[in-house]
C-alpha cells in the first residue's frame, strides 16, 4: 500500500486534525526560510537579531531586519499549500469531503508572515483562523505601555524606508536614531516587533496544549525543521496519546523520526495532492 493511500485512510477516520506549519510553507511565496539552503539564519546570526537583548542593544538594526521581513511579506501571495489549508479551515463541506468524520481542523503556525490568514475569506470566526504562536511581523508592541496592535504600513516609519536593501542587497545597516524608529500610537514610546523572540514565552502555549494537541488524532507537520522548541515537541506529544503524524517537507529533517506518513517535495505540490484538493487551489 502506498504512503498516499495510507494517509488518505488516516484522513478518512480522523476527528481532530491539527496542522503545524513552519517556514517551508511560505517558501514558494518568496518568503526566505531560515534553516535550509540559503536560509537567512545562515547569513545572519539569529541570536543577534531575534532576541530582546539584541533589540535593547541595537533597536535600529533589529527594526531594519523586521522592516525587511514586513516588506517581503506584504508583497507575497499565498501559495497552493496555504490555499489548501485555508480551504479546509473555512469550508466544512470541503473538509468533510476529505475527512468525513472531522470535527475540527486547526492551523498552528510558527510563521509570522500573515500569509495563512490572507489565504482565508474575510470575517471567519476565530476558531477557523490560524493560531499564530510566534506572533506577526505586522503586529507591534509598546516597550512601555500595554499597547498591542497591527500596522500594515510599508515602511512603518519614514526612517526605515529603503532599508530593505540592507538584507536584500547585502548592504551595511544604517544607524537610525531611536526617536526616528516606530513609536507607540498610545504613549509615544519606542515600539518593538510583535513577535516571539528567542528566550521569550509563547503566550498561547497553554491553550495550544490544552485545546488543540490533547484532542489531536492526526497531525500534519508542514515545512518545519522541527528544531525550535516548543513546536519541535508537538509530534512526540500527540503520538503519546495515539495520534498519527504526517510530515511534508522539501528535504529530510530531524522530525522524520515521528512520521507515520512522509512526503518529501515542495509542500505546495505534495500537500494539495495528498489532501485531494489540487484542482481547487490552482492559480
UniProtKB/TrEMBL annotation:
Compartments where found: Mitochondrion
GO MF annotations, alphabetized: histone deacetylase activity, NAD-dependent; NAD+ binding; protein-glutaryllysine deglutarylase activity; protein-malonyllysine demalonylase activity; protein-succinyllysine desuccinylase activity; zinc ion binding
Domain statement: In contrast to class I sirtuins, class III sirtuins have only weak deacetylase activity. Difference in substrate specificity is probably due to a larger hydrophobic pocket with 2 residues (Tyr-66 and Arg-69) that bind to malonylated and succinylated substrates and define the specificity.
Stated role: NAD-dependent lysine demalonylase, desuccinylase and deglutarylase that specifically removes malonyl, succinyl and glutaryl groups on target proteins. Has weak NAD-dependent protein deacetylase activity; however this activity may not be physiologically relevant in vivo.
Annotated InterPro entries: DHS-like_NAD/FAD-binding_dom, NAD-dep_sirtuin_deacylases, Sirtuin, Sirtuin_cat_small_dom_sf, Sirtuin_class_III, Ssirtuin_cat_dom
Pfam families per record: SIR2
Binding residue positions for Zn(2+): 142, 145, 184, 187
Protein name: NAD-dependent protein deacylase
Gene3D superfamilies, alphabetized: SIR2/SIRT2 'Small Domain (3.30.1600.10), TPP-binding domain (3.40.50.1220)
Organism: Sphaerobolus stellatus (strain SS14)
Active site per the UniProt annotation: 134 (proton acceptor)
Segments crossing the lipid bilayer: none
UniProt KW keywords: Metal-binding, Mitochondrion, NAD, Transferase, Zinc
A single GO cellular-component term on record: mitochondrion
Binding site for substrate: 66, 69
Cofactor descriptive note: Binds 1 zinc ion per subunit.
EC numbers: 2.3.1.-
Amino acid at each position: 500500500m502506498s504512503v498516499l493511500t495510507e494517509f488518505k485512510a488516516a484522513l478518512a477516520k480522523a476527528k481532530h486534525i491539527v496542522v503545524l506549519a513552519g517556514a517551508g510553507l511560505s517558501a514558494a511565496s518568496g518568503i526566505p526560510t531560515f534553516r535550509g539552503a540559503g536560509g537567512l539564519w545562515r547569513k545572519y546570526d539569529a541570536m543577534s537579531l531575534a532576541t530582546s537583548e539584541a533589540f535593547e542593544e541595537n533597536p535600529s538594526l533589529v527594526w531594519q531586519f523586521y522592516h525587511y521581513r514586513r516588506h517581503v511579506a506584504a508583497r507575497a501571495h499565498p501559495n497552493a499549500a496555504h490555499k489548501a489549508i485555508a480551504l479546509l479551515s473555512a469550508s466544512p463541506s470541503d473538509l468533510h469531503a476529505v475527512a468525513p468524520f472531522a470535527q475540527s481542523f486547526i492551523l498552528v503556525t510558527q510563521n509570522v508572515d500573515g500569509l495563512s490568514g490572507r489565504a482565508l475569506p474575510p470575517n471567519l470566526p476565530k476558531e477557523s483562523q490560524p493560531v499564530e504562536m510566534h506572533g506577526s511581523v505586522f503586529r507591534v508592541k509598546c516597550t512601555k505601555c500595554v499597547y498591542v496592535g497591527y500596522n500594515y504600513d510599508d515602511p512603518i516609519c519614514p526612517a526605515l524606508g529603503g532599508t530593505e536593501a540592507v538584507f536584500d542587497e547585502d548592504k551595511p545597516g544604517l544607524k537610525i536614531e531611536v526617536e526616528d524608529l516606530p513609536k507607540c500610537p498610545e504613549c509615544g514610546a519606542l515600539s518593538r516587533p510583535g513577535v516571539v523572540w528567542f528566550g521569550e514565552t509563547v503566550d498561547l502555549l497553554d491553550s495550544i496544549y490544552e485545546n488543540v494537541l490533547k484532542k489531536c488524532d492526526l497531525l500534519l507537520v508542514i515545512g518545519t525543521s522541527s528544531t525550535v522548541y516548543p513546536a519541535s515537541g508537538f509530534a512526540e506529544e500527540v503520538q503519546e496519546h495515539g495520534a498519527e503524524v504526517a510530515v511534508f517537507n522539501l528535504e529530510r529533517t530531524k522530525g522524520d523520526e515521528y512520521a507515520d506518513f512522509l512526503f518529501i517535495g515542495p509542500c505546495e505540490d505534495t500537500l494539495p495532492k495528498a489532501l485531494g484538493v489540487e484542482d481547487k487551489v490552482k492559480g
